[in-house]
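During the second half of the funding period, the structural biology subgroup turned its attention to how the target accommodates small molecules. The most pressing case was zinc ion, which had performed well in the primary screen but for which no bound structure existed. We therefore specified the complex as follows and requested a full 3D prediction, including the ligand pose.
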Amino acid sequence: MSQRTKILTQIVGFRGWIVVEHRWEGRGGARIEPVEGYDVPADARLVLVLSRRFTPRCAKCLAIGGTCHERQRPRRWADLPCSGHQVVIEYAPWRLSCHRCGARAVELLAWAEPYQRQSRRLQQHLALDAFSMPLVHVSTKWGLSWHTVRRAELDAIQRWDRNEPAPPLRQVGVDEKWLGRRHKRKEKFVTVVSNLETGVPVWIGYGRGSETLKSWLDALSFEQKAEIRLFACDMHEPFKKAIRDDSALAHAAIVHDPFHVIKRAGEAITELRRSIFFRAGPELREVGRGARWLVLRSWNHSSDEQRARLRLLFRLNGKLARAYQLVEELRAVLRAPDRKTLYDGIWRILRRTERRDNVPMRKLHESLKAHLDEIVALGEYHPPTGRIEALNNNWETLVRRGRGYRNHAYLLAKLRFITANPVRNSAGIKRFLALGLPTPLARAA
Ligand SMILES: [Zn+2]
């Protein structure tokens, strides 16, 4: 091995394969000889010809050995670019006749899945980019077509999904989501069912009625239903009805998660704020401008500046101040450690909202009272609800970009994927790029 091929082999880094030849090509595939030995045009493509060093492996059963059934012609795979140059891997794979499983399939390759024309690591990078960039940006950046990027992304996601163990479904989150305004479907909402313990969605159906949830429940086996201990849903009556109508789910508890209870209280505050400012004088209007998010945020999460604005706002309007304080109290009550404390706390709030002569607070009172059982059950079950918010954020990212309306399976796969694989630091990226690799190849990525 010459010094040059040794370095190239080290850079390429597929264990068991070496670079035996490299050459430069122009756009049309014509060979380029570097001027003075090193001067290469900026758009030249680097072709690396690989050769296997050891016995081949069966791609079906991973057995080592097998006899050569057919030597195929050299094939090419697009790989990650190097110093701005496109890189292409060239290799002539064998079609093996496996001794163990009898399959006649193309040998296992360290860099790509069968039938793919990009290396696995390139596909993972495409999927990572498609995470946060429009597909047009991704395809332009990598010099690939839109369809190639889309397919590569889906392949990477499905590879992950195939290798992902399915955890048991014991705590179920049911949530309705708005589809956004840019789609042309009849239904404006979807119902998302997720596993609360992992936070990963398991099912998506169009519509938000009880039939939608029922169609999912009907697909479950008796054993699966027996395993479910808890449903956490928003304060939406049809979901409750679908669950209660199913006799196999009589043992399962229904709770309303704090996120949605607070959201309901936030709606009441928003309505109250609107009615106050509707008839407000110029002074109050000036303070209240853009206060919509201010009054929805908890005191703990507000900055000093925001707190100062809130204080000013509340000094001018006592009604709003009392409502805000009530929601703060509700927030604290929902964190109660047991059923009894939560029950007492909710009643303390209900006694105060009951007397309210203002309509929004009265409506909040009615809906808290109507869902009392499910809210109080929170104190007993404590579902892991932080994940619901993560799912919400991911959903909004997807919908804002108008992705996946046409392809239902893609929408679910992508939502599952981005919820299960958050990228927040370098460890997240590393985990992401190694997703779904079969074990003997884990080092190959
Ligand atoms: Zn085999």
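Two results from this model are relevant to the next phase. The chain has four domains: 1-111, 113-162+407-445, 171-257+385-406, 258-381. Residues 113-162+407-445 form one domain.
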